[in-house]
Design brief:
12 helices, binds beta-D-ribofuranose, binds calcium ion
Length: about 300
């Protein structure tokens, strides 16, 4: 698995899920600007891997700017540094290869074997399509967290953060005909946890403890925060266990009109190449989260 990411509290939890999954080999992370600037998402990726004892996993630096416009950044949600806890400064550095080249070599090395999970703005994937058109076709599966297809957005009334940050890239990826699985906001909102419940969770697993430090830290840093929604962790769950949700096959359009439809995702027809999540089996999601990270006290565990 390769994870394209902008950590981010929920990105970090999703990455820890993959690291704790016995059947998954994480071959690398590629960073992208999004929740915080690219320099910081890259640092967070390295620091998280170090805290998890997995500094052997390479981090390749990706885009610091979208194809058009600017990343919105979300420090109010994730914290000024992008995470809800202080991690030791990484002693490792990103590899010399950039994200596009790393994705190209990773996807074409083991043809049809590598799952790509994209948890941030889609700039790196769009650039890969442009520079190395055949690479994404070699993925075993492409899972993207993004969009608010049939429900309210979280940046504008209809736009979700990852797509809003780089709608041009999103349009390139989602209109490419590639079989992308889209885990959108209405799906993610079906898996959330309240403050009291989250603060009562326990784990003895090192990666489970780190997950809870992130989750509980997020609640402690914001006394008014009442619920945490598992956005990127649901995308990871789908990659690990595709039956965690029902799906529909659709065609999608991404709005590109500034100050109007910017970043909105709309169904234009179907059946199409995009697999869009519908009903999430929240019990199954929480059992997966609890099982991989050995967390006690989750809703269905
Ligand atoms: C998405 O935006 C980011 O803030 C989260 O990490 C997630 O990828 C949710 O809209
Ligand atoms: Ca993210």
């Amino acid at each position: 698995m390769i994870i394209d990411t902008d950590p981010g509290v929920d990105d970090a939890i999703a990455i820890l899920m993959a690291l704790a999954s016995p059947d998954v080999e994480v071959v690398g992370l590629t960073s992208v600007g999004g929740n915080v600037p690219r320099a910081r998402t890259t640092r967070n990726a390295l620091a998280l891997l170090q805290a998890a004892g997995r500094s052997d996993i390479p981090v390749a630096k990706g885009a610091s700017r979208p194809l058009r416009g600017r990343y919105a950044y979300a420090p109010q949600f994730h914290g000024p540094g992008g995470l809800s806890l202080r991690l030791r400064e990484p002693v490792t550095v990103p590899i010399a290869e950039g994200a596009v080249e790393f994705l190209y070599s990773g996807l074409t090395y083991d043809l049809g074997e590598t799952t790509l999970v994209a948890l941030g703005p889609l700039t790196n994937l769009a650039r890969l399509l442009w520079q190395r058109p055949i690479a994404l076709e070699q993925a075993r599966n492409i899972v993207v967290m993004g969009g608010a297809v049939d429900g309210p957005g979280n940046v504008t009334p209809k736009a979700e953060f990852n797509i809003y940050c780089d709608p041009v890239a999103a349009e390139i990826v989602l209109a490419s005909g590639l079989p992308v699985t889209l885990v959108d906001l209405p799906a993610c909102r079906q898996v959330s946890i309240g403050r009291e419940e989250a603060l009562g969770l326990r784990s003895e697993h090192p990666l489970g403890k780190l997950t809870l430090d992130l989750l509980q830290g997020w609640f402690r840093k914001g006394p008014a925060r009442e619920r945490f929604e598992f956005y990127d962790p649901l995308a990871m769950a789908l990659a690990l266990d595709p039956v965690v949700a029902t799906v529909a096959k659709v065609d999608l359009d991404v709005g590109l009109e500034e100050n109007d439809s910017w970043g909105e995702t709309t169904i234009t027809g179907g059946p199409g190449e995009i697999t869009l999540l519908q009903q999430v089996d929240s019990g199954r999601f929480f059992r997966l989260l609890a099982g991989t990270l050995e967390i006690e006290g989750l809703p269905a565990s």
